[in-house]
Amino acid sequence: MFCISNCSVENQIKFSTCTLLGNALTWWNSHVRTVGNGIAYAMTWIELKKKMTDKYYLRTEIKKLEVELWDLKVKGTNMIRYNQRFQELALLYVRMFPEESNKIERYVFGLPDMIHRSVVASKPKTMQEATEIATELMDKRIRTFVERQTENKRKQYDNQQQQQQNKRQNTDRAYTAGIGEKKPYGGSKPLCAKCNYHHDGPCAPKCHKCNRVSHLARDCRSPANTNASNNQKGTMAGQKPTCYECGNQGHYKSDCPELKNRNHENQVEGTEARGMVYAL
């Protein structure tokens, strides 16, 4: 700032102290009131720097920053923050890096393992070159990682879609098999060539009237099939249908007048009986 503003040596103290802010400005005003303006502004720039160093450059704070510099490493993939903080600490401790190679070595030491060997193999000559190489390598690693994540997500999505499609196809096959295909026999009994069923011994009796197994036609108790069979026989012989309730021809059992009268009488008797019970 002295060079930019062409500040003369006798005005350096006034120029620098007028830029102080906060606690530093309060400290300087207190010093001026103690020693007076003449003595305060008569000191040299070297004396002012020593006084400010004694005030604000505490040894305990210096040790903290030195430890921070030696332990400084990249957190995650944040190269920007690492580069900025390393440059700040390196400016405060110039004496710690007498040569540019010492600073580069300490900078490379704090890089993560994923790019450390590559930066060492590139053998940077300057600090700027080391920073550019490390930043470029980290950017490539991040892009590769993002691309792999995107590819893995795409593969997972494709696998899920394929699994859902296979599930739908299997469901359709099972539904079609349940409707149109016969379930295969899973037992150990032989297949009968006569009845086309799996069993041991003779075939089970089957009624040709109701198409049920376990009885013959003469023992069939299905009234519909019996009436149909008898009516079919009567019709084939040129006879009228016969009622199996009253034995008369010309009507079926469902239209029998005697059965209807009997049902009516039963209903009347039941009504009278309920009336007597109610009167009692």
TrEMBL record:
Keyword field: Metal-binding, Nucleotidyltransferase, RNA-directed DNA polymerase, Transferase, Zinc, Zinc-finger
Domain of life: Eukaryota
Presence of the UniProt keyword Isomerase in the record: no
Species this protein is from: Tanacetum coccineum
Low complexity bias (residue ranges): 158-168
Record carries keyword Zinc: yes
Chain ranges of the CCHC-type domain: 206-222, 243-258
PROSITE patterns membership: ZF_CCHC
Gene3D superfamilies in alphabetical order: Zinc finger, CCHC-type
Protein name per Swiss-Prot or TrEMBL: Reverse transcriptase domain-containing protein
InterPro entries in the record: Ty3_capsid, Znf_CCHC, Znf_CCHC_NABP, Znf_CCHC_sf
Pfam short name (any one): zf-CCHC
